[in-house]
Amino acid sequence: MECVPCVRNVRFRALQKALLCLCFITFLLLFVINREQILQRVAHSFPAINPSYYELTVVLGNLEDTRRHTFAPNKSLKVATQESEIPIKSNKETKVLPVLTNKRTEQLESAKHSKTNTKPPTVTAKASRITSNHSRIIKSPNVPRNSSGIIESSRVTKENSEKAREISTTFSYLGDAYGWDNTYLNSSCPNRTREKLRSDTFNGTFVKDIPILQWKKHAILSEYQRLKRYLGTYGWKGVTWQVLNETLNLLNSSHSGYLFDTWKGHSPCVRCAVVGNGGILNNSGMGAEIDGHDYVFRVNGAITEGHENDVGKRTSFFFFSTNTLFNSLYAYKKYGFHKIPHSQETRFLLLPDHDRDYLLVRAALTNSVIDRGRDKGKRPSNYFGSNLTTEHFKILHPDFMRYLRNRYLWDPIINTKNRDIYRPTTGASMLLLAVHTCDQSRPG
């Protein structure tokens, strides 16, 4: 009889241990499920001791000047920092790494070494021109260029170097650092739409020299290394160097780096009409006014036949991705959309979000069939027509799409593990593209 309490005690202790283990396992599961929210709260509470969220951008000497710009839309992610540059010498090029120093840490270091006189190192850097030697650049008389025929990035100056120091860190997956292209800064139009983006209304989100298009001059390994970490339309992750290099080197004319290669310069302002597919123009009678612009943008299921009085009939730019192209041909077929707009003035403006987009352009410009992937065996000439030239295709730059997402088309999903499935719509991207390139834009 004396052993009965002992047995009960043993069972009670065993049950107690089992409950403790169950509670511990439950706690671990809750932590794993909510780890992103917990880490973000910790990051915001202790920014000075959380360097893992700082993004260090490598600037290669033969790249366009890559700078970090102030990230305005999501202010909760901002950690005020200052930037200094440390040169690292190698055999062939100089890498400049921005060193991000948190203000709190900087104050502690300053107090610690207050008795030591130090002078900051002087760093000078020259932006090298992006060139490639294995294919010839075809000069265009309508595009601003230098003596070599290449639209060249602006040089590093004291002014833009000082501006580059006014930065904020963001989570590294956002990639809020971009190349540098001054192609659209030479307009003499007195009342440009893009100038309104520089106002206080947009809180510093506008970047005047953001790269818009990608072409032959971007087909270099160092640029590929910079952008291959970003997935989909935001970079070249998932696109092999061979496919990218072959495709971009087919875009070997300076026309490929400038949207308005047919501009005749009759007036100082390039006027654009941006036409969507929402049906708002039904019975509007605005067709003639739309066609009266210098350039007309259309997207995806761009139905004009039978509706010319309302939407016009001209198509200067057909904006699409490979995915939206085939989806539109299927979904809008019952409404009369049997083929994409095609005329002598039409340029095909591609928003790439997969390697299939680059494979499509490569096959189109070589008048061949797509040789791999989900579109294997398809012939692009069946959709775009035959006798295609380099000037017919223009491809948006990944930096531009990341810039649009980060600063104008932000969505809370970007801060979650499902961020890779988010992409701005083709319609919104087309409108913002027109605003950044045209002197005067009118949506319809």
UniProtKB/TrEMBL annotation:
GO terms for molecular function: alpha-N-acetylgalactosaminide alpha-2,6-sialyltransferase activity. Pathway: Protein modification; protein glycosylation. Keywords: Disulfide bond, Glycoprotein, Glycosyltransferase, Golgi apparatus, Membrane, Signal-anchor, Transferase, Transmembrane, Transmembrane helix. It holds the Pfam family Glyco_transf_29. Its EC number is 2.4.3.3. PANTHER family: ALPHA-N-ACETYLGALACTOSAMINIDE ALPHA-2,6-SIALYLTRANSFERASE 2-LIKE-RELATED, ST6 N-ACETYLGALACTOSAMINIDE ALPHA-2,6-SIALYLTRANSFERASE 2. It is a single-pass type II membrane protein. It comes from the Eukaryota. This is alpha-N-acetylgalactosaminide alpha-2,6-sialyltransferase. One of its GO terms (cellular component) is Golgi membrane. Residues 106-125 are annotated as: Disordered. It comes from Xenopus tropicalis (Western clawed frog). Its main location: Golgi.
